[in-house]
Please model this.
Amino acid sequence: MAPDNKLSGRARLLLAGLGLLATSVFWGSAIPFNVVLLRHFDPFVLTALRMSLSVAILVAFVAWRERGPWWQMPLGLGRFLLLGMFMAGFNVLYTLSVLWSHPITISAISVAMPITGAIVARAMLGTRLEPGFGLALALSIGGGALVVYGQPGFDASALGLRGGEILMIVAMVSWNIYSLKAQQWLGHLGQARLTLISSISTCLWLGAIMLLMLALGVARWPAQTPPLDAFAMVFYLALFSAAVGNMLWNFGVSVVGLPVSSLYINLSAVFAVLIAVAFGFEPTWLQVAGGLIVMAGVLYMQLRKLRTASA
Model:
């Protein structure tokens, strides 16, 4: 039995909430870091490199934690490849959606991640929305929309359809399917091994896609060796955004479910703005207000769940 299953219900809720909050910070920090890294790396090369490093980190962590063999494969080849396909699908489709659409449009669509999470959970598991989820969802989406709308230089004309928008929607659905199937197929192993196994499969898919894109001339190796600080950023993303972030996300889904966990995703945009301040960016009052509204929605839902656990 996984160690994280030994905690009491209330402790697990608190730990899951803190973990999802940390995940929002890690994923939010990835946004400004990726902006810098894409000046040095092709997006397909960067995605495969980041995932490869995260697998190495997860192997070391699982081997240390289990004090034994790190590899355990309770899945058949088909399910193993399917998990990686859904996770890699999100990464690839997200990249293509940004290339074939406008970043502002993609940001606006991504605000709807809690809705897709609720729909996928309902369709696949028959999950009913918890009391209070509707209000928390409205706060999360409304606040996230303000964060996007409050971007300096926001241009409403950029919200037109350019073809890549449907890929972002499919990417969100793909991520949500991965989140549910990973728990169904590997949840009994604990979240560390679950994340490791799914990341290995994802790494194989992303490596194959990268090689295909290089062969087709769509992707390219860096023209010159990137600076040392770029490699430091790649390592940071592999450690926190991919390895630790994905593991904490999976733990959150296992405790509070996919719909509630999805509420935290809109906090990523909030933390991206806060982290960008360190790079000299000054947030607008709309972004600050939107961030507070998103946080209110998450806090409201978390307090409701804690109150229920204490009853």
